[in-house]
Amino acid sequence: MIDRSLYDEQKPLDMHNLQFDIAAQHLQVEPWILEKIKAPRREFSVRFPLRLDNGTIVHLSGYRVQHNTLRGPGKGGIRYHPQVDLDEVRALAGWMTWKCAVVDIPFGGAKGGVTCDPGAMSLAEKERLTRRYIWEISPIIGPEQDIPAPDVNTDPQVMAWVVDTYSVFKGHTCNSVVTGKPLSIGGSLGRLKATSQGCVYVMAEAAAATGLDLAGCRVVVQGLGNVGYHAAEILHDAGAVIVGLSNVQGGLYNPKGLDPRKVQAHFLATDDLLSYPEAQAISNQELLELPCEVLIPAALEGQIGLGNAQRIQARIIVEGANGPTSPFADDILYDRGIFVVPDILANAGGVTVSYFEWVQNLQKLFWTEEDVNKKLRDILVRSFKEVHDIARKEKINMRTAAYMLAIGRVAEAKRVRGIFP
Questions:
Q1: Is 393 tagged catalytic?
Q2: What is the pTM of this model?
Q3: I need a labelling partner for 44 at 20 to 30 A (CA). Which of 172, 214, 215, 219 fits?
């Protein structure tokens, strides 16, 4: 039996490890293989100076963790955030391994980050930060080794700087070093909204599995970044009622519905989400507990735990963020009949279309957005069915089922590759 008192709900790495351990109990895998694939393969820490616009020089810490490369190159985003540390990046890299495996694309898991406050930086400072960080990690990344992508507080422009910096390092243009790039330098149609579109595809499957009619259903979205905003936009256009939205400042609630485009326009114009006139201002904690049919946590990890799991009112939770729900909360939600689509399945649309972008870059042949979205839907619908079948057969929650599928695939890759030397 697993002693859960050894795991801290506030630590992402502990939560990653506990999720792994829970699923591993259900698998017949040799202990040495489990030990090998649970921990990161390689960790890279750097510290570098950054000259600010006012001439001040600060020193920043950055990380790149390659958790697993048994099934292909490492794959995972780069995030800029004050809370970035090595343990968080380790957890995020591990989640990428299982995410790629659960949808069965030929990537391993990696992640990177810099401890900084990008909100306080000018565009020029953010560019210098990006170029210096990428120069530091250039020896360990590449299209056949480890392929970064956008994550929290990074975007296609940041990826363009990555391409340019890495290309200088290599001495030739190398667009395939990252995904999530602008279209003008090899990005893929459909990539910007891919994570959000994927969330909507698996949400539809979850609704069908639980007998919920999505037409007119109430949806709450936590987070107005790329994932949350575009998910709200897609669902609003499809006829769902977006009753709650939030960002780091707090949340908005209107039981009659919110137009995400109007909310976003107000925020961009005023830098004050909570002054939006057509809604009640609430806290992010209150937002998670609103009455709704579907809740999409699309902010940071650690949002639903022992402290609030009993008060969640949604019928379905679709995890747009990485690690928003602890294993302790999973048990409570499962017992209450709340259907959770876990992050490694729910938000796998981004890495799946990143895989499409990488393939297009290598082939020098690009697809239409219709082709991208069709292939994305096919992969996510198949993956949902595989995970749901395991969950029903084993009488376990969807997260444990997803981990069983993913760990089994990575473990088999290790078994057939063997030990060297």
A1: no
A2: 0.94
A3: 172
